[in-house]
Design brief:
Protein name: DNA processing protein DprA
Radius of gyration: 21 Å
Distance between the termini: 35 Å
InterPro entries: DprA, DprA_WH, DrpA_SLOG, WH-like_DNA-bd_sf
CATH class of the largest domain: Alpha Beta
Family: Belongs to the DprA/Smf family.
Order of helices and strands: HHHHEHEEHEHEHEHEHEHEHHEHHEE
Helix content: 40-55%
Structural class: alpha/beta
Number of helices: 15
Strand order of the largest sheet: 1-2-6-5-4-3-7-8-9
Largest sheet: 9 strands, mixed
Number of strands: 12
Number of domains: 3
Mean pLDDT: 88
C-alpha cells in the first residue's frame, strides 16, 4: 500500500473498510476522519451516528476488505491514500477528492504538470488525428496527458502521448482514469492500451476491483480527470456529452477550459463551439495549450462556470444544546438546498448542522449534491 509515513497497516485497512461501508462517500469520509481522528474510531462511531437518525447500521465486513486487498495485489495494483506524499495536490484540492485510489504504474506522474484531453467516442477521423497530435506535442513539451481510456478521442490522446519524447523526462507520459475496477479493461479493445499505460504511465481507478463500469461511475471518473489537470481540452464533442461534463467540472474547480473549434455543420463540433461561446479558450495548436498552462497561477483565463462553494469542514466539538438530526431533517425536502441556508434557518452552529447531516447520511436518509447542497434521500 502507498501511504503516508504515519499510516499503520491497521489504519490503512480501517480506511478502506470505512470508505466501502454503506452511505460513506468522499465528503462524509473526510468529515468522519476530521471528527474522530482515525478511521478505526470512525468505524466504531458509525452505529451510534446512524442510531441518532433512527436507523441501524453495519459497516462492511472485514472479510470483504481482505478479499478486495487480495484482488488489488493480484492485479498488480496498490492503494493510494489522500494524504500520501504522491497523491496529486491538484486532485486533493477539490471538494470531492477520492480518499482512496487504486493505481498501477508511477503515481509521481500526477505530481507533474498535467493536461486533460477528452472528446467524442464516435469522433471523426480528423478529430482523432488532432487529439493524437495535440497529445504528442504536449507530452513532448513535458506535460502529462490525462484522459479516460474511452474510444475515440481518449484513446488517441493516450497513444499520442505515449509516442512522444517527453522533453528530457524519458518517453511521453500519460495517465488513464477508468470507471471500472483496476482489474477490468473497458472498452475491451483497449485492454492492451490499458496495460501499456499501467506499464509506462499511470492507471487510476476509484472503484473497487471487480467493479464493472456502470453509467453512474463515469461522471465520478470525469471529476478525477478534471481534478488531476491544470486545464482540460475538449477536441470534439456533441452537446450533452460526457466530455462537456468533464469540462464543466474543470471550470467549477477553477481550472482552465479549452476547446478546439469545429464546423457548425458537424453535430460533433457543437459541444466545443458552445464551450467557446460560454467562455472556454479557443485553441488551435499544442503551443496554444502549453502557453496557457505554463503560466497557470490558479486564475483561469476561461470563464465557463463560476466555482461552487466549498463545503465547510465539520468541527471537532458540538455543544449539548445543539439540534439533533431529526430537527435538521424537518427542514429538508427532496429539493436540494444549500448547507449555508440550513444553518441560517436552523439558527444552529455550522458544526451542529454538519454533524446532523452526517448522521442523516450515515443512516441513508441524505443525498449530497454539487455546490454544497443536500436533500432528503
Amino acid at each position: 500500500m502507498s501511504q503516508g509515513a504515519a499510516l499503520t497497516q491497521d489504519e490503512a485497512f480501517a480506511r478502506i473498510r470505512l470508505l466501502r461501508s454503506p452511505n460513506v462517500g468522499p465528503v462524509t469520509y473526510r468529515q468522519l476522519l476530521a471528527r474522530f481522528g482515525t478511521a478505526g474510531a470512525a468505524l466504531d462511531a458509525l452505529p451510534d451516528l446512524a442510531g441518532r437518525a433512527g436507523k441501524p447500521y453495519r459497516a462492511v465486513s472485514e472479510q470483504r476488505v481482505q478479499d478486495e486487498i487480495a484482488a488489488v495485489r493480484k492485479s498488480g495494483g496498490r492503494y493510494l491514500f489522500h494524504d500520501s506524499d504522491d497523491y496529486s495536490p491538484l486532485l486533493a484540492a477539490i471538494e470531492s477528492a477520492p480518499p482512496i485510489l487504486t493505481v498501477r504504474g508511477d503515481p509521481a506522474l500526477a505530481l507533474r504538470p498535467c493536461v486533460a484531453i477528452v472528446g467524442a467516442r464516435n469522433a471523426s477521423a480528423g478529430a482523432v488525428k488532432l487529439a493524437r497530435d495535440f497529445a504528442h506535442g504536449l507530452a513532448a513539451a513535458g506535460f502529462v496527458v490525462v484522459s479516460g481510456l474511452a474510444r475515440g478521442i481518449d484513446g488517441a490522446a493516450h497513444e499520442g502521448a505515449l509516442s512522444a519524447d517527453g522533453g528530457g523526462d524519458g518517453g511521453g507520459a500519460t495517465i488513464g482514469v477508468i470507471a471500472s475496477g483496476i482489474d477490468i479493461a473497458y472498452p475491451p479493445e483497449h485492454g492492451r492500451l490499458q496495460d501499456r499505460i499501467a506499464g509506462e504511465g499511470l492507471l487510476i481507478a476509484e472503484q473497487p476491483p471487480g467493479t464493472e463500469p456502470l453509467a453512474r461511475h463515469f461522471p465520478a471518473r470525469n471529476r478525477i480527470i478534471a481534478g488531476l489537470a491544470a486545464g482540460t481540452l475538449v477536441v470534439e464533442a456533441a452537446p450533452r456529452s460526457g466530455s462537456l461534463i468533464t469540462a464543466r467540472l474543470a471550470g467549477e474547480m477553477g481550472r482552465e477550459v479549452m476547446a478546439v473549434p469545429g464546423s457548425p455543420l458537424d453535430a460533433r463540433s457543437h459541444g466545443c463551439n458552445q464551450l467557446i461561446r460560454d467562455g472556454a479558450v479557443l485553441v488551435q495548436s499544442p503551443d496554444d495549450v502549453a502557453e496557457l498552462l505554463s503560466g497557470f497561477d490558479g486564475v483561469p483565463r476561461s470563464v465557463v462556470r463560476e466555482a461552487d462553494p466549498v463545503a465547510e469542514q465539520i468541527a471537532a466539538q458540538v455543544t449539548s444544546d445543539e439540534p439533533a438530526a431529526t430537527g435538521i431533517a424537518d427542514l429538508l425536502t427532496t429539493a436540494p438546498i444549500a448547507v449555508d441556508e440550513l444553518i441560517r434557518q436552523s439558527g444552529a452552529s455550522a458544526s451542529a448542522v454538519q454533524l446532523a447531516l452526517l448522521e442523516l447520511e450515515i443512516a441513508g436518509r441524505l443525498v449530497r449534491h454539487a455546490g454544497g447542497r443536500v436533500s432528503l434521500g
